[in-house]
Amino acid sequence: MTEYHLIPIKLQNKNEKYIFAKHVQIGDFLFVLEKNNQIKSSKVIDIIIQIKIGYYAPLTTEGTLIINNILASCFASVKDHSLAQYSMFPFRYYYQLNKRFSLNDPLNLFYYSNDLHWTVRNMFAFASYFIPEIIV
What we know:
By secondary structure, the chain is α+β, with helices and mostly antiparallel strands. It has helices at 81-87, 89-100, 118-130, and strands at residues 6-10, 16-20, 29-33, 39-43, 64-67, 70-73. The strands form two sheets. Strands 2-1-3-4 form a four-stranded antiparallel sheet, with no helix packed on it. It has a two-stranded antiparallel ribbon with strand order 5-6. It is globular.
């Protein structure tokens, strides 16, 4: 996870809000996967920053994933998780449709490079032009 990945925190009114990982503070409540496979809120008591080389950025149907038992968005560098999730609808739909016809990799998702996948690169270009305020 990068400092610009979105993480949902639980607000005092029981709602959730997505913030950048770098803005998580001690005392915030994150959503954590417990041993019984239930997601519960848990208070942040310590923050450890680790720097590692390389990255892997999966896109999930739900728009979320579990990283070290913590619920996180699969989106980074955008300020609005819901908008990012909605914008990926055409790709999720296309992928699901092609999976029904037994195509193993309809979006060439398993293509690895040192760059962003072409779909994500195009989405960033589109958003940067039309709604630049949501891009970090």
